[in-house]
Structure formats: C-alpha cells, structure tokens
C-alpha cells in the first residue's frame, strides 16, 4: 500500500496504462513538460517521450478530432481537457463523431479513446473552471461516462478506461485532487471493481444516498453526522454515470425505501432527474418518500465568493435526508 | 499556363457594387497564372513546368472511363431520388475531374477522408456505389469498413473529417511510415468548410506536426446558396501560406492537372515534407442536394459558362484530336456506364429495409444492460402486434 493523492493516483494509473499498451498516448494542453495544470501527467513525457505524451495546440476540438484520427489508425489516445468549461469547443467532435462513428460504421470502427475532464467547483476559480457538464454526455448514446471519487478508484478506473474499447468520458473531482488514501499499486487490475459498477461505500438502513465525484466524500461525512442523529444512511458511489448500475441502486432503495441523489451539477435535467424517474418506476411500491435531489440551482456557476452557498454541502444533504423522513 | 477566366470577375449576374463590393471580389489578389492546367477546356494538352506529366493513351482512357461512369452513377442516383428510392442525394456533377484526378493519385496504402459528395473518390478507391445509395436511402449511415478500401466513412458535419485525417496522419508518423516507402492521407472538403474552426485547427495541427497529409479543397463556388465571397476575401489556396505550408490552385475541371498536382503533393507528404493545400477550382453544376433549388440564388448564365469547361468533354476532345481513341471506345464506355447504372438501380430498388432491432446494434462494443433491456422490451412490443394479428 502506498499513500497517494488522487492526482498522484491518476498519474500512477496513467503510467501503468502507457506501460500496458504501446499504442496508448496522452495528449492535451500543457500535459508534457508542465505535467498538466494539476500535475496529473507529471513526468510522463520525460519517461515516455514526446511522441506518446503530446503537448497539443490550444484548441479542444482539435484535440478530440485528431485523437479520433489516431484511434482510427490503431492508437489509444487519452486526452486531457484542461477544465470542464473548456470542453464545449470539443462538444461537436465528442457528440457527433466520437459517440457516433462506431454506429455509423455498423461496428467496423472502434474508438478506444479516453477524455479526462477535471470537473466541479470549490477551488475559488474564475468562470468556466468549476462546472459539472457530465449529464450532457450521459445523455449521449455511444459514450461511457464515469467519475472517480477517491484515489483508489482514480488509480484503477483510469486504467480500466484506458483499456476500454469504447469511448470514455472520465470525470475527475478537481477539488479532491489533493485528498489522500492508501492505494495498492501492486494489485492486479483484474481484481478491481469494474468501472461500470457502483460501490456501496457505507451500508445503511434508512436512506439511500447516491453520489459521485466530489460529492462522495461529502456524503460519507453526512453518513457519520446522520448516525449521530440516529439515522442510518447508505452511501453509494455511482462511479459510472452511463450506463448507470441500476441493479445496485434499486436493491438499495428497495431496502431503505428512501432515496436522495446528490451532485454538484444543476438539478434541472441532471442525472438526479434520470435516477429519480428510474427509481420511481422500478421501486414504486418500496418508496416511503419521493426521490429527492440535492444539487446546484438553475443558475450558471456563480462567482467563487458565492460557491459555498451554491454547492451542496453536508447541511444541504442532511436537510434533504430530513425532508425525506417528512412524508 | 495562364487562363484568363480563372477568377470570378467575369461571373455573370453580379449584384450592383456597394460599400461591401470589396468583400465580393475574393480573387482580386489571385494571380490567374497560378491556376495549374494541363488540359484546356477545348481539349488541348498544355505543359506546366512544375507538373510534368507522362501519361499513356491507356491511362487517359482509363480516366475518361472513370469520369463517365462516375457521372452516370450520379445521374442514376438523382433519378432514384426523384422516383422516391432515395431520401436525398448530393450530386457531384461538374466535380468529376477533381475527384477522379485526385482519387487516382492515391496509392493503395494512402487513406482518404471524404465529405458526403466524394462519390468519384469512392469509385476510385473501389467502394461499391451501392454502399453510397444505402446511406442516401436511409438504410445505413454509411456502414462500410474504412480499412477495406482505405476510404473513410462519409462525414456529414462540415469539416469534422479534416481533423480525423490529420490525426490519422499523425498516426502514420508514429508508425514510422513516412519516407521513401511512406503513406499519406488526403482530406476532402469544400469551400464552405474553410470557414469551419475544425478545418483551421486541422491546418494548424498538420503544420506544427509536419503531418503527411494533403488538404484537397473542391472549391465549387457555392456552399448551398452562399457564394465563395461569403466565406473568404482571400483565394483559398493562399490561406495555406499563413499556416506555414504550400497552397496551390488547380483547374478542378482538368483531370490531368488534378492527377499531377495531387500526385506531387501526396508524394511530398509521404516523403516527410508535410502538408499541402490544393484548391481545385471547379463548379457545382447541379443543386447542393436534391432538396435544393439553385434558381433561387444563382443565374443560369453562370452554369452555362461553366458548361463550356466541362471536365469530361475536354478529355473526349483530347482523345479524338490526338487520335488516341476510336469512336468505338466512347461507345464502349457509355455501354459500361449504362451497365453500372442498371446494376446500382436494381440493387437500390431491391435493397431491403434494415431489421427494426438492428437499431440497437453497435452503439458500444458490447450492449449495456440498459440497452439490452430496451431492445428486449421493443422486441416484445413488436411481437405483441404479431400475436394480435395471429389471433384475428
């Protein structure tokens, strides 16, 4: 076991991915000498060379578009989009090309391509650096969308994403980059939980709390606080947002009868809405209360001096848990 | 070879000049002498010092055959659309020489990235035209294996494929396949696409990586209803200079010039000399697609002027004038083209609709549980109608 920050765990996972497959490439803005603005690719260009760790021109559509071309030639690009809010210049290439080309080719084309996206707020950043656009991609058929919440998952899931033959949008909780945990860097990847499965982080009896990415730690803290009030929360880290591991979700809700979905993203049209609809449909007779959502208000991300009010926190989650008991 | 009418200045039907007149004169900086031509519209063979072309009678006749067949495929497809067999068709009429000339300049290991109008290139790469009809009929979104003929899928979003082509070329570099026995990529796009960010990003990526790629722009003068001057104040081939690689303008209705210019640019790319932009100066003689009505935005006189520069007629005149072909040759080609036309017509008419459940195939490399459940549910739903039928 090695103590690693989430950022370092990703770095070690990427190193393993580059070692595991000679066709794997890293490409993005400032990923080379600088090692990325969050140092996730630190040292990789030095060890794997400029042909495999590519500092690209500053244009996101170009990054994804050329990565698709490299994938067509047999390469396995792992692209970095520097910040969540910068993914939109590449949105067309991701949605219209990356997600659809296999379908267009009736299975002839395989695009093993990872798009890494640091996402979420809480770091006091300027506009466009704190967004949570994951639902836009989960809404798009042809993509896998995952989010890691802690260093252990960061280390294994980035390797699983790199090994996937499907395009993967890989969301990294940027405010958790400095969180530390013990990571088994010697363990076999095959033994790790597959990236399309949810994990029951904390077992509980009263309320199912679903979360991912930066909210995983917040929800784990909420479970401890709620236990002090005599409420038993079951915390599930979804990990995969597309597809959703509905087996794990439904089993938990059938047990607890209550469900709260927590994410930083805007609740309107968000993943919480999709989950609420599916849980209502499949667990209707088990529910003691409507599925509640905790997330951002339907406003753009506010100036950072307001973000502590905007972002879901421990109290907002506990408030939703309390409301869930009010029915 | 200087050609007086290379520019757009003589284009009939121009609106009265106003304060934006400058913006409508995209060719005011173009040197007409820079239009590379090896065969005049009258069918006269001319030389260009930079593009010597040794070509046998058999090779010219083969190009003629390609041109005629490709035009026939296009005619057949338009007719099929009019008869309701195709949903839509994007005609290549007038652009046969640009496509056949460039398409025949490619080696088997080179990779081509088309738009949705490259039916002539598809023909040169050996893709069955029936596959193209599938797409426009609505039976598939393309559905061919790009590696089968080194001809990528048609790309409908304008300009997107130029980035894929550039990335593919970067892969060639990483494979060490640049050099004497190298490979290269050709990316097709039109004049309208040059306004897209993706095309400009592709130019940048190709340039800073010195990627083995040829950007082949068919400037057919019209992006649906918008004339070139709505896209550019600069002649398109000149843009390359700003990106740091050579740009040339070729007579896009001259199959020999298109062949020679593309060959040279592809060879340079294969040898590691980096990208070239080729602007094939041509004309979209038909509508943008079968749903378009060009009479709303351009004058027929313009079309009539370009008919005099027809890409096929000049080859025929050249072959006759130089006595390289008997009249029977032209009859044989016509007959072969008609046979191709009949074959694809029959294939189109007999093409079955895809099975409803096939819409669930190939979303990902393996279906997710959700998708499998959706498929199962839809199958049961469909079966419920059959069960109902059976009990009647």
Structure, described:
- The complex is a heterodimer of chains A (327) and B (392).
- Chain A contains 12 helices and 14 strands.
- By secondary structure, chain A is of the alpha/beta class.
- In chain A, helix 8 links the parallel strand 10 and strand 11 (233-237).
- In chain A, helix 8 (215-228) packs across helix 12.
- The longest helix of chain A has 15 residues, at 6-20.
- Chain B folds into 2 domains: 4-349, Rossmann fold, CATH 3.40.50; 359-391.
- Chain B is built from 13 helices and 8 strands.
- In chain B, the strands form 2 sheets. Chain B has a 6-stranded parallel β-sheet with strand order 1-7-8-4-3-2, sandwiched between helices. Chain B has a two-stranded antiparallel ribbon with strand order 5-6.
- In chain B, helix 1 crosses helix 2 (96-103), helix 1 packs across helix 3 (119-125) and helix 2 runs parallel beside helix 3 (119-125).
CATH architecture of the largest domain in chain B, by name, is 3-Layer(aba) Sandwich
| Principal-axes shape call of chain A | globular
* Overall CATH class of the largest domain in chain A: Alpha Beta
Structural classification of chain A = alpha/beta
Number of helices of chain B: 13
Q: Write down how many β-strands of chain A occur, each being a DSSP E stretch of 2 or more residues.
A: 14
> Strand-and-helix sequence of chain A, N→C?
EHEHEHEHHEHEHEEEEHEEHEHEHH
């Amino acid at each position: 076991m090695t103590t690693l920050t989430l950022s370092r765990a990703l770095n070690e996972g990427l190193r393993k991915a580059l070692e595991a497959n000679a066709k794997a490439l890293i490409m993005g803005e400032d990923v080379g000498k600088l090692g990325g603005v969050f140092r996730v690719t630190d040292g990789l260009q030095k060890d794997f060379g400029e042909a495999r760790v590519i500092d690209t021109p500053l244009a996101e559509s170009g990054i994804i578009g050329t990565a698709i071309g490299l994938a067509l030639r047999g390469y396995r690009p792992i692209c970095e989009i520097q910040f969540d809010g910068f993914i939109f210049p590449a949105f067309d290439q991701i949605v219209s090309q990356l997600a659809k080309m296999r379908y267009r080719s009736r299975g002839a084309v395989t695009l093993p391509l990872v798009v890494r996206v640091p996402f979420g707020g809480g770091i006091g950043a300027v506009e466009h650096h704190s967004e949570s656009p994951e639902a836009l991609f989960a809404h798009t058929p042809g993509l896998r969308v995952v989010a890691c919440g802690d260093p252990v998952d960061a280390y294994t899931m980035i390797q699983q994403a790199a090994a996937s033959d499907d395009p993967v949008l890989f969301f990294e909780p940027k405010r958790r980059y400095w969180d530390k945990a013990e990571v088994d860097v010697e363990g076999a990847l095959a033994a790790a939980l597959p990236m399309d499965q949810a994990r029951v982080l904390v077992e509980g009896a009263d309320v199912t709390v679903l979360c991912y990415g930066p909210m995983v730690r917040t929800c784990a803290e909420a479970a401890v606080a709620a236990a002090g009030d005599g409420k038993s929360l079951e915390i599930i880290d979804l990990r995969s947002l597309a597809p959703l591991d509905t087996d794990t979700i439904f089993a938990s809700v059938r047990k607890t009868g209550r469900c709260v979905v927590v994410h930083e993203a805007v609740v309107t049209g968000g993943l919480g809405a999709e989950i609420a609809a599916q849980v209502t449909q499949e667990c209707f007779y088990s529910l003691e209360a409507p599925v509640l959502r905790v997330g951002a208000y339907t406003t753009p991300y506010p100036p950072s001096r307001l973000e502590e009010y905007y972002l879901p926190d421990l109290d907002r989650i506990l408030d939703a848990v309390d409301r869930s008991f009010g029915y | 070879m200087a050609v007086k009418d290379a520019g757009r200045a003589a284009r009939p039907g121009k609106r009265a000049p106003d304060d934006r007149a400058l913006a409508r004169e995209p060719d005011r900086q173009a040197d007409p002498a820079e239009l590379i031509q090896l065969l005049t519209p009258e069918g006269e063979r001319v030389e260009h010092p930079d593009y010597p072309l040794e070509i046998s009678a058999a090779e010219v006749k083969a190009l003629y055959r390609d041109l005629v067949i490709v035009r026939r495929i296009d005619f057949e497809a338009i007719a099929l659309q009019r008869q309701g067999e195709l949903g839509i068709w994007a005609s290549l009429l007038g652009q046969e020489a640009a496509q056949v000339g460039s398409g025949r300049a490619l080696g088997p290991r080179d990779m081509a990235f088309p738009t949705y109008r490259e039916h002539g290139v598809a023909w040169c790469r050996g893709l069955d035209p029936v596959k193209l009809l599938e797409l426009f009929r609505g039976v598939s979104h393309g559905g061919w294996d790009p590696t089968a003929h080194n001809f990528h899928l048609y790309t409908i979003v304008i300009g997107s494929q130029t980035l894929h082509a550039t990335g593919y070329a970067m892969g060639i570099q990483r494979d060490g396949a640049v050099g004497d026995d190298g490979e290269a990529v050709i990316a097709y796009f039109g004049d309208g696409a040059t306004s897209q960010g993706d095309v400009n990003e592709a130019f940048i990526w190709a340039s800073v990586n010195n990627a083995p790629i040829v950007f082949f722009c068919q400037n057919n003068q019209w992006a649906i209803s918008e004339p070139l001057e709505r896209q550019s104040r600069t002649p398109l081939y000149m843009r390359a200079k700003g990106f740091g690689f050579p740009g040339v303008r070729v007579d896009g209705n001259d199959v020999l010039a298109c062949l020679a210019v593309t060959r040279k640019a592809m060879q340079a790319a294969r040898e590691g000399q980096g990208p070239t932009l080729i602007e094939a100066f041509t004309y979209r003689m038909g509508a943008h697609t079968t749903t378009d009505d060009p009479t709303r935005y351009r004058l027929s006189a313009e079309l009539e002027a370009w008919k005099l520069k027809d890409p096929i007629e000049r080859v025929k005149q050249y072959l006759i004038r130089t006595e390289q072909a008997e009249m029977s040759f032209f009859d044989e080609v016509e007959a072969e083209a008609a046979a191709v036309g009949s074959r694809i017509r029959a294939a189109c008419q007999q093409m079955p609709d895809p099975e409803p459940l096939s819409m669930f195939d190939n979303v990902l490399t393996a279906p997710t549980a959700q998708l499998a459940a959706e498929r199962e549910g839809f199958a049961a739903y469909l079966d419920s109608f059959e069960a109902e039928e059976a009990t009647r």
